[in-house]
Design brief:
By secondary structure, the chain is α/β, with parallel strands linked by helices. The chain has one domain: Flavodoxin domain (Rossmann fold, 3-Layer(aba) Sandwich), CATH 3.40.50.360. Helices cover about 30% and strands about 20% of the residues. The protein contains seven helices and eight strands; from the N terminus they run ααβββαβαβαβαββα. Strands 1, 4, 5, 6, 7 and 8 form a six-stranded parallel β-sheet that branches. The chain has a two-stranded antiparallel sheet with strand order 2-3. The structure holds flavin mononucleotide. Flavin mononucleotide (FMN) binds next to α2, β2, α3, α4 and β6. Flavin mononucleotide binds next to α2, β2, α3, α4 and β6.
């Protein structure tokens, strides 16, 4: 464990500390919560799927070192999902983009975690009319969901009445506290099986992704 902490540098330390960070008052807002409630798709119709993904290209952790990713790992997995089924795709992006470099991103994330921040979204959240299933993807940051995911989930009203399947890419933590984070943020959503993919294995994960989509009944 010590070795992992040392290898991941600040991330491992952040991960250990993050578990102790309580929910705090938002420091910024994503704008008004949408007023339209989701309407389920008609019976017998194929489930309408929202694929909502946050992913950061640029310098990242990679097998104990660093690598510049042209496409973020979670985005690679999102591409495999899009290759397999029809979805509505929404990219979760921060109005103030995260740095290209890894260490400054770790520092910024840790500041956001400590502040209980809700970084503003770059674009209005999507409408949920007709959507009944949500595939919600992100990297694991400091062993939990990035704070921008909290902004997003709150902005869409916690996916009340919908089925949510979380998926993550990670370096060492697996899911970390991500399922618990979402469960706390979405008391009125139903959670189905999620998927974890190690970031370094993302480009080879197509069979795993398709297996998951089959198990959750989307293909
Ligand atoms: C700010 C930051 C914090 C991270 N913290 C963790 C962590 O606590 N546990 C872990 O396994 N990986 C951690 N990672 C690694 C990422 O989860 C992993 O590289 C992921 O695949 C990146 O996905 P992306 O390219 O879609 O952003 C962290 C990376 C960053 C940039």
């Amino acid at each position: 464990m010590v070795r992992i902490g040392a290898t991941l540098g600040a991330v491992g330390v952040l991960g250990a500390l993050a578990a102790c960070v309580p929910e705090q008052t938002p420091t910024s807002s994503a704008g008004p919560t949408p007023t339209v409630s989701p309407t389920p798709a008609p019976e017998g119709a194929l489930p309408r799927v929202l694929l909502a993904v946050f992913s950061r290209a640029g310098e990242n952790y990679w097998n104990g070192g660093r690598r510049v990713l042209e496409v973020g790992n979670t985005d690679v997995v999102a591409g495999m999902i899009r290759d397999s089924l029809e979805v509505e795709h929404y990219r979760i992006e921060a109005a103030d983009p995260y740095p290209f470099e890894y260490e400054p991103t770790v520092q910024r994330n840790w500041s956001e975690v400590q502040a209980g921040a809700r970084p503003s979204l770059a674009a209005a959240p999507p409408g949920l009319n007709g959507i009944d299933t949500v595939l919600l993807g992100s990297p694991v940051w400091a062993s939990q969901t990035p704070m921008i995911m909290r902004t997003f989930v709150e902005a869409v009203g916690g996916f009340a009445g919908l089925t949510v399947h979380p998926f993550v890419t990670y370096a060492v933590s697996g899911f970390g506290s991500v399922p618990d984070d979402y469960a706390a943020l979405c008391p009125d959503a139903t959670f189905g099986e999620g998927l974890t993919v190690r970031g370094e294995n993302a480009t080879g994960a197509a069979p795993e992704v398709r297996g998951w989509l089959a198990r959750i009944g989307l293909i």
